[in-house]
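Sequence and structure are kept together here, with a separate record for every protein. An example record follows, reproduced without changes.
>
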Amino acid sequence: MLVTLSNAETYNKQPPAGPPDMYPKLTNYELEDLQKTAYGQVLGRDYAYTSLKLIGDPCPIEIETPKPDSLDGKFVWSIDGSNNTLDYSAFHLLLSRAAIVEYSYSFKPKNSHHEVRTMDCGGVCMVDGNIFGDGVHLFGNSTANVQNNPDVSWIDVISNSDEPLIVSFDPDTIDKKPSSHASGWSIKFMQTLELMSLGEIPSNKSGVVIRDGALFPICATNVDTVKSLSKALKWDNKFMICSSKRISESTLFVELLMNPQNEDLLQYYFPEQNISTTILKKLPADYLLLPKILSPGQRTPFIEAIPRSRSNIPRECPELTPICCYYMRKRAPHTIIRLEFPRKYLGNDLGQLEWALQCVAWQHELGTKVPHVQEFADRQCQLKSEVQILKNITANTLLERGLETLEVYE
């Protein structure tokens, strides 16, 4: 697409055209999602959850290490993503990637015990349509007029195209910065790729899939979220557990204990300590409470948590309702991760679910901040080298066309 850039003489003679209308734009609702935490809490005093329900006994539970025999012939996967943008005054380049890492466990030696696959999506966010010449119309057919479909599936759009996705900037929204819109698109594409990656997990292999982040990605569309997670629910030989280290953004226990109906629960965790809801209101997130509730090697009881920002998904698909817990690493440093999985798993073989959680906890012992396989996936999805290469190519192209002043310095 960079080959179709106008030269300075042509571009400077044309009046600014603004962003083209034929390409999709982010709505105010989607821009507001960017301001929310990973778990849907917005800026201000709004609660992150419409419903929180403790499942079973409130006592923390020890998680054992999975037996070696139970791992023989099994697989552990991790899915993680990254994104980046290159910002110029008339356009923004979008880069998104998801990585799938597969660990294979066997008593028998193999030539390789791991595999890595990546899924990429590149795009351009238009700010001034005149910056590109007529040749740009050879691109962008996959996104033209997509905004006219309120139920668009970006999984379908990305799957059916091998060209850069062209999107647009809308100045009539709550955020006037084009770079914010570009970042929003880049995150949306990354989270869509992470959901698409679930479909790349081999159906004939059994084990556990560890996906980075919340069960419901905050920027992916509900259509794509339901489509991907519903397919994962049909697996009969593996479980999907979502894992995140972002407990500084999670208010699961703060909101649960602030409910007046859970006063007994508050006294259970903090007996004779005069902890009140007034004090809880002052706490920013769960990371201040969890070290007082958990001991190394323990997880919290399960909590059914319906996020306010995605409450319509559990309403339409109750089996996808998130079930959450925290796990504290046995080894120092005693880092804590948040785990989520669909409610349907509670109605399946609970022994297999417990085994899946043991695998995640064991991988967390091998890692540090997150499970080891997740750390490896995080390294595989990085875009630093691609960003640098593309930055050099773009700078050279702009210089050749006399448009080097389009670079943005922030």
In short: Residues 107 and 292 are 40 Å apart (CA to CA). The chain is about 30% helix and 20% strand.
